[in-house]
Here is the input.
Amino acid sequence: QSALTQPPSASGSPGQSVTISCTGTSSDVGGYNFVSWYQQHPDKAPKLIIYGVTKRPSGVPDRFSGSKSGNTASLTVSGLQAEDEADYYCSSYGGSDNFVVFGGGTKVTVL
Amino acid sequence: QLQLQESGPGLVKPSETLSLSCTVSGASINSNENCWVWIRQSPGKGLEWIGSVRSGGRTYYNPSLKSRVTTSIDTPRNQFSLNLRSVTAADTAVYFCARLAVATREIDSWGQGTLVSVSS
Here is the structure.
């Protein structure tokens, strides 16, 4: 069982928005501003799209945004495009005993 | 530009040791800014952190795998490695090596991944 809880699936039509939640505890998501989000297309390595809860690496479209409230982080994809169909994973620092904790992943489908 | 490349056997027998290396180019393996990470993904499943190693040999392991895992750095080769002992079929997965930025804790560079199957 994953340390962080994500919904297994989410969907939206092109142009719509979809929000994915990531629930942890005060020992990980709630305790640090070190939440990251990764996008993974089939048979590819994951790609960093959000770090530090809200920051976007260079080259990531501003359609991707992150937030956090308490022990739950969220990723919002606005203006859905066909290429956004992928698996999305959240991750958090969880202290030295849980240096990296992942969510179980959410499959986003563009209808 | 940072690049990481996994190498090692694609098939390991049950009860034996899975050994992988990751060659880093474009960054120093000994930089204090970097932490080197192993992550795996079983077929059709999610990502699982295995362990991390930093310069100076400091290591961090997933509690569920800690008793079987060792990670280390090979400075002359600019590589880091993973040893996973006493493997079973449940250890069959794509294994990724990656870099985690120490200051901000995100994994910003990934290798392409290598499939390791455990079978007799």
Q: What stands out?
A: Residues 57 and 72 of chain B are 7 Å apart (CA to CA). Chain B touches chain A at residues 35, 37, 39, 46-49, 52, 60, 62-63, 96, 100-101, 104-108, 110-113 (CB under 8 Å). The mean pLDDT of chain B is 96. The radius of gyration of chain B is 13 Å.
